[in-house]
Write a structure and sequence with these properties.
Rna Polymerase Sigma Factor, Chain: A; Rossmann fold; alpha/beta; globular; 10 helices; 2 domains
Length: about 325
């Protein structure tokens, strides 16, 4: 892991933030022209460790993989507000931030490395929001934008889930993070997957209900395990801040409509949506694709067929590997 110290940043809220540290990792070699760099943007709870042992996208990043590190110089920064090496709410008087603020810090980091234009910016979920923001705010700084399982704005239902998770943390801090993770994890999986994997099966093959408040059902035990494990891996305040940043992301509100939002983009776009994703549904990606088509901008679209819901892009999938290869 390497670190970059950013200049003071004027935030979308109007506040300023100084002494910003950005943790990042790289793979591959930057060519002499500095034209082969790809920026990976991570999800809410991930970090800069995208490839290698325990890397969150190791299935796709590496020598001769879909994102081939023998051809490309690949970077992944830990976002502003996270607890995985970059400046976040453990700092004194940390202000509320937005996706645009995260990307402004990434842009400063890329400039510090002497990279004028990225070959591609790729990200899923919150990472897709970052990729879109790169295309809209720094249109000349990338040639290709690949948002995966992304949305132009959260639905009212998604806003509600995020609000409940933040309230749980406000009320109970680290124990609240368990509830927030249980709730969030439920939204990342498809209903069919949950039904197939757990159904209404009882925990430990019990013959009948316990008639008390222990985890009778396998799905209860599974979600409690996921939440408890996560409690020791992530800071509750980072979760709260990043969740709020996602909730603020709204291209229609910021630009008026999607055609206005994409009017000045110059990068090619390749949207990949997941068939079973009900959190950021296929229709949201298609809405952005339609805006680009009407503007005459270069755009491609593909549906990734996966039973795993919103989390499908994080798992090994040959179809996604082929889509990334074709895009690059």
């Amino acid at each position: 892991m390497q670190c970059f110290e950013s200049e003071p940043l004027r935030l979308a809220s109007g506040e300023s933030l100084g002494n910003i540290t950005v943790a990042y990792e790289t793979w591959g070699t930057l060519n002499a022209e500095k034209s082969n760099a790809i920026l990976l943007c991570h999800t809410l709870t991930a970090d800069s460790h995208a490839a290698g042992p325990d890397g969150w996208w190791d299935d796709y990043v590496g020598p001769h993989k879909a994102i081939d590190t023998t051809r490309y110089y690949v970077l992944c920064t830990n976002v502003l507000g996270s607890c995985k090496g970059s400046t976040g709410p453990t700092s004194d008087a940390f202000p509320v931030i937005t996706i645009e603020d995260m990307v402004a810090v990434q842009h400063a980091c890329i400039q510090q490395l002497g990279i004028e234009q990225l070959a591609a910016v790729i990200g899923g979920s919150m990472g897709g929001m970052q990729a879109l923001t790169w295309s809209l705010c720094y249109p000349d700084a990338l040639r290709l934008c690949i948002p995966i399982a992304c949305t132009s704005r959260l639905s009212t239902q998604a806003l509600a889930f995020n609000a409940i998770g933040r309230q749980a943390i406000l009320n109970h801090q680290r124990d609240g993070l368990v509830l927030a993770r249980m709730l969030g994890h439920t939204t990342y999986l498809s209903g069919d997957l949950l039904a197939d994997r757990f159904g209404r099966d009882l925990q430990d093959a019990k013959p009948d209900y316990s008639y008390n408040f222990i985890n009778d059902f396998q799905i209860e035990s599974y979600l409690h395990y996921q939440g408890t494990k996560f409690k020791d891996q992530f800071d509750p305040y980072s979760y709260q801040y990043l969740s709020k940043a996602i909730s603020y992301f709204d291209l229609d509100r910021r630009y008026g409509d999607l055609k206005t939002a994409f009017a000045n983009t110059t990068a090619q776009h390749f949207f990949i949506a997941i068939s079973s994703d009900w959190l950021y549904p296929v229709s949201e990606s298609k809405r952005m694709v339609q805006a680009l088509v009407e503007l005459g901008k270069p755009v491609r679209y593909a549906t990734l067929h996966s039973p795993y819901g919103h989390d499908g892009f994080l798992l090994a999938n040959e179809q996604l590997s082929q889509l990334l290869r074709s895009a690059l």
